[in-house]
Design a protein that fits this description.
7 helices, 6-stranded antiparallel sheet, 27% helix, 5-stranded antiparallel sheet, globular
Length: 317
């Protein structure tokens, strides 16, 4: 099996050749290759024109992760209408609701861009006991405070501009040593073409920050659950994460087209309930390198190649 990397600009459509890079004896070397049997898409964009052209040549469903820049609003609606609905926080389009009313209802809400990643431009809006509203970005310390007699909508419109945003119900997150944390489950297809969980990690934010995407610590989730729960409850939680995550991946694939991997981010609330916060189409694999038990484990890198081998052998044309 020959592996090589290339960009859309490297494709010669007329000659049906691709100029790419292959790893030979530890060195990357440029070469000219025929069109591949399978393509693993790592381009982080919303356009699928190149993928569609490739599939016209190599066969339908021979490219996977055709879309990996997920529209969070579309995914919310998809999951909300599925059996996974109990795990989905209430979410609204920013322009369709009164944020003030939602803050009154939930006390804390999060405003996030429809095409966000790494927690960028995610605002935490919290109502205090005095009636003031605190607007935070990444850190818990507020960037702005709206007094009870000031317009929250005016300040938010000024901050958010013309980009499309969603408003999500705030979850009372169970903290770890007074730090915010979440759970990231990496779900990938294996050599049989079936969804399976490759790893489950707990990301712990920096002190006084709520954004876990840029985390200070990362642990094997089982380690954390053993601290928080009994052995029986830990087993139940891990089993639930496996089942919910694979179901979420299957549901997303019905809307996104051929997928081979994604990650599912969960919040764990004070009552021990799991909530799906979001799905990511191009999960950051390097973060798992900080896990002690992961040092000799390359499964997260090999599984996409195994799935590519599965597609190459299957008749999807």
């Amino acid at each position: 099996m020959k592996l090589f990397a290339f960009t859309p600009a490297d494709i010669d459509w007329e000659q049906q050749r691709i100029r790419g890079l292959s790893l030979t004896k530890g060195l990357w070397k440029q070469g000219l290759f025929p069109f591949p049997h399978v393509v693993y898409n790592r381009s982080f964009n919303k356009k699928t024109v190149t993928i569609q052209r490739l599939e016209n040549v190599i066969g339908r469903k021979k490219c996977f992760n055709t879309i990996n820049f997920f529209n969070k609003w579309d995914l919310y609606n998809l999951l909300k209408q599925s059996p996974l609905s109990p795990y989905i926080p209430d979410t609204y389009l920013y322009n369709d609701v009164s944020v003030s009313e939602l803050i009154e209802k939930y006390k804390i809400v999060y405003i996030k861009p429809m095409y966000g990643f790494k927690g960028k431009s995610v605002y935490r809006i919290e109502q205090t006991t005095t009636g003031d509203t605190r607007i935070s970005l990444n850190a818990l310390a507020p960037k702005f405070i709206c007094r009870a007699n000031e317009s929250i909508a005016r300040k938010l419109d000024e901050l958010l501009g013309s980009e499309n945003y969603m408003v999500q119900q705030g979850i009372s997150i169970r903290q770890l040593n007074n730090r915010y944390c979440d759970i990231r489950v990496l779900v990938q297809k294996d050599i049989r073409g079936e969804w399976t969980v490759s790893t489950i990690a707990c990301r712990v934010a920096y002190q006084d920050y709520f954004n876990t995407s840029v985390c200070e610590f990362i642990y094997d989730a089982a380690e954390i659950f053993h601290v928080l729960f009994s052995p029986t409850k830990t087993k139940e939680m891990l089993q639930s994460l496996h089942e919910i995550s694979t179901a979420a991946a299957q549901t997303a694939e019905t809307h996104m087209g051929s997928l081979g991997e994604l990650s599912v981010d969960f919040a764990l609330d004070d009552a021990g309930k799991l909530w799906i916060i979001e799905l990511n189409g191009k999960p950051q694999k390097s973060m798992f390198n900080d896990l002690r038990w992961f040092k000799a484990n390359d499964i997260i890198y090999s599984r996409p190649l195994e799935y590519a081998y599965h597609l190459a052998r299957s008749d999807c044309r």
